[in-house]
Amino acid sequence: MKISLPFGLLPHEGFFGGFLILTWLRLVVAVGPWDRDAFLYFGLLTVNLGLIAGCRARPTRMNWHLRLWYYPLVMNIVFPTMGSTAMKVSSHTFDPLLEHLDVALVGVTPSLRAQALVRPWLTEILSFCYLLFFPYLAFSVVQNARRGLPHFRGFIVGLFTIYAFGFLGYSWVPAAGPHLAMAERFTTPLTGWALTSLNARVVAEGSNGVDVFPSLHVAVSGFLLGFDWRHARWRHRLYVVPCVGLWFSTVYLRYHYLVDLLCGFALAAFALWVAQRWARTQPEPNPSQP
Asked: Which of 89, 110, 151, 255 is a Cys-bridge partner for 147, taking CB atoms 3.0 to 4.6 Å apart?
């Protein structure tokens, strides 16, 4: 099966562009085109289209890198705004629905059952695993960028396919997570030491308040592991055990529902398939100038 998008778009450009357009249109309908967030999304979309058009007109190495590196930049602009954006286009959060799905699947949200496992040393280890997501992601982006333009293009295609659908999930199914929505039902505190405190502070200050469904900690780390399996086996071996700890930590630390994780794994598998299929069926970029 060949992946083909109109106008010479890369797969992630179609998916992420769709997210920007849909969110902008929802904001226009809900609060008008001059709302701050609506204006932001329109501006991001305009710049995105300009970079794609510029690269198609002059496919130089610099233009290709501008086109690809735009997405890490946009991700860091969009993520902090998603709390206000989601609440402008959605009337409520969806924690009760996500909990209901967990109950239908396994009888109870796993975070509640995980209380029986709580120990300070385990909380500290799993807090480390959860924090590891950020350096793993940053290191992976830099290392894959250094392997050449064709390789980096395939990596960005997969990674930002994930962020496109993940951000759509945040905006359509905003939720706070068990640690906030079900706080009164947890009877065992998560105690630990320095890493536990650091992780709690990072989550409290860095979350946008709706970043639950799907779990991008699971989706992105799963994609990175799968991509490393194919292209950097040493890095896969280095991170596989901490990543399994990271996945468990999302439930143990009460940040995610089980359904968030299941959708995160499915999204990672889809992104790996898209990246691999695209790399096999599309010609390599051929920058004509430095």
From this structure: 151
